[in-house]
Amino acid sequence: MKVSVDRDLCQVNGVCMALAPTVFELDDDLDLHVLVDEVPADAEADVREAALQCPRSALSVTS
After folding, report:
1. Is 48 left (phi over 0), alpha (psi -120 to 50) or beta?
2. 8-state DSSP, 63
3. Has this prediction a pTM greater than 0.70?
4. How confident is the model over 4-55, as pLDDT tens digits?
5. DSSP 19
6. Which residues contact 40 (CB under 8 A, 6 or more apart)?
7. Phi-psi region of 18 (alpha: psi -120 to 50; beta: other; left: phi over 0)
8. b/e per residue, 9-44, with b = 16+ CB within 10 A?
């Protein structure tokens, strides 16, 4: 599965990073980065939850 970020919607509040820290990272400039091209199987549930919990619905998950 893959995850992408709509940068126009993202408010960089860190919910996704808190739920899936192996997949998302905020840098020192508060830019959100997706750390993987393919979400590892053991992180898929966390990434799905991050997409659901994102306050601005900025995350998209695809298979």
Report:
1. alpha
2. -
3. yes
4. 999 999 999 999 999 999 999 999 998 999 999 999 999 999 999 999 999 9
5. H
6. 22, 23
7. alpha
8. ebebeebbbebbeebbeeeeeeebebeeeebeeebb
**Which is nearest to 55 in space by CA: 19, 2, 23?**
19
Residue 57 has a pLDDT of 97
d(CA 56, CA 63): 21
Q: Helices (H), strands (E): how many in the chain?
A: 2, 4
Residue with tokens 């400039």: 29
Q: Can you list the positions of beta strands (E) in the chain?
A: 2-5, 24-26, 32-34, 59-62
Widest Cα–Cα separation across the chain: 30
Beta bridge partners of 61: 3
